[in-house]
Specification:
mainly beta
Length: about 270
């Protein structure tokens, strides 16, 4: 969990819900977001200043190093990788209002290259790929919408637009592991739950959390959603069964993002 103002990371014990601060000192620089591709030991980082995406190879060589740089749109704000690791999706805020786009990068070629640019809403900041890779959701904070991209068409195209209401500012979003739900952190307040099985996708319920929610993540089993509240320096834990907040944990000042490391497979409950 990254605290932008203090430039620190804190960690939770997801089994005991205890907090460990600080765990790591880090600097973001121009890199806004990183996501790992499953087909090879590589990470992709969107660089907001130069408008590029860096590909980082873990090994070889050692230590990890940048092995590719791909130009995308102006002010990229995030990155997501398709389940098979062949496509990278990058939302670009653009140089002017209303010029938001999504860059689609072919990661299966060397070097990776942009194969399509999809026009989305204003001020896109968040992106998430469905578990089957067929849909990409883009959070457009300046137009209070989420663009739903159909990746099965050539080129990928906008299949639907989900509206949230004035001044909701959808910022980040995450799919449930089964792909049926999308949880959208709205900087204007609260989390919307979207039914991704509906055609077009529809709003299911609204969950009140802390002030200024920004980052969001879900546990691998889909049971709990973690929401970072930038405005009151806390994290809300949402039960996906009841769609209610079950815990609120204070953290460092102005947290902005959160990631979850799954527990080891040998942490099953003792039945003796």
């Amino acid at each position: 969990m990254y605290n932008k103002k203090k430039n620190t990371c804190g960690t939770f014990d997801v089994l005991t819900m205890s907090v460990h601060l600080p765990a790591l000192i880090m600097g973001l620089g121009a890199a806004m977001t990183a996501a790992a591709a499953p087909i090879e030991p590589k990470a992709y980082v969107s660089n907001g200043g130069p408008g590029t995406v860096s590909g980082i190879m873990f090994f070889p060589p050692s230590p990890p190093s940048v092995v590719s740089t791909t130009g995308v749109g102006r002010f990229p704000q995030g990155v997501a990788v398709s389940p098979d690791g062949t496509r990278i999706y990058v939302p670009n805020m653009g140089a002017t209002s209303g010029s938001g786009t999504l860059s689609v990068i072919n990661a299966a070629v060397t070097p990776p290259s942009v194969t399509a640019t999809v026009r989305v809403g204003k001020g896109p900041t968040g992106v998430a790929v469905s578990p089957d890779g067929k849909r990409v959701y883009v959070a457009n904070q300046s137009s209070d919408t989420v663009s739903v991209i159909d990746t099965t068409t050539t080129p990928p195209s906008v299949a639907a637009t989900v509206a949230f209401g004035t001044n909701t500012f959808p910022f980040q979003l995450v799919f449930s592991p089964d792909g049926t739900r999308v949880y959208v952190a709205n900087a204007g307040g609260g989390v919307w739950v979207v039914d991704a099985t509906a055609n077009p996708p529809s709003l299911l319920t609204f969950i009140t959390v802390g002030a200024g929610p920004s980052g969001i993540a879900i546990t691998p089993d889909g049971a709990v959603v973690y929401v970072v509240n930038n405005g009151d320096s806390s994290v809300s834990l949402i039960s996906t069964i009841s769609n209610t907040v079950v815990a609120t944990i204070p953290v460092g000042t102005n947290p902005s993002s959160v990631g979850i490391i799954p527990p080891p497979s040998n942490t099953a409950a003792n039945t003796d």
